[in-house]
Amino acid sequence: MKTPKVIGWREWVELPDWGLTLRAKADTGARSSAIDCAEIEHLPNHRVRFTLRLDRKGRRVVTLEEPIADIKVVRSSTGHAHERIFVETTLALAGRKKTILVSLVCRRRMIHRMLLGRTSLGPEFIVDSSVDHWATPKKKLARPSKRPKD
């Protein structure tokens, strides 16, 4: 097993399957990861269409369609339990790539569009909560990048 990479409590992450780069908060207190969605639509054949907000005001959005990987009840930080849809994608951070599950949820009121929970972080990453952006530069812009060709 490789030595874990140290990351800060906030980092720029790539989601290459979706052609996205965005800032995420590493939250070791959260079990699962979450990403900010404006719309979530169940489709036939166990699929979901969702619109990701790339900025807090929802002016820049990307609509994607993926197979549903799981549906679980998740307890929020306020203690309320909600059923959430999870999809699978690739996370690229600090020179490492791994497949993660991410829940689709409205994070409109939150500062960060994405939250990286323990299951997405470990064992490949160690979070230094005293550092903002250990592995990636502080200033960048959340953006769609070129989507990989199939």
From TrEMBL:
InterPro entries: Asp_endopeptidase (IPR008503), Peptidase_aspartic_dom_sf (IPR021109)
Domain Retropepsin-like aspartic endopeptidase, residue spans: 6-131
Transmembrane segments: none
A Pfam family hit: Zn_protease
Name of the protein described by the UniProt record: Retropepsin-like aspartic endopeptidase domain-containing protein
Organism for this UniProt entry: Haloferula sargassicola
